[in-house]
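Appendix B, example 12.
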Amino acid sequence: MISRVALDLATALIGDLGGRAAVIGGLDSTRQLEEAAGFVMRVVASGHNPRLAVPDVDPALISAAPTTTH
């Protein structure tokens, strides 16, 4: 379980950097987070904007999308 104090501190730090925090998992999700951060750092180091590397997806469109079964 994530400590509320730690979560509030991390949220404040992310906000100070101009970001928006989103709780998407606990410590068991850190491996994926580290890999995503590494990807973003490589994009930036190569002189590109990471915002252009990943499409901007409206979550409302995802939930409204039809589902298919195979």
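The longest helix spans residues 30-45. Helices lie at 4-16, 30-45, 59-64.
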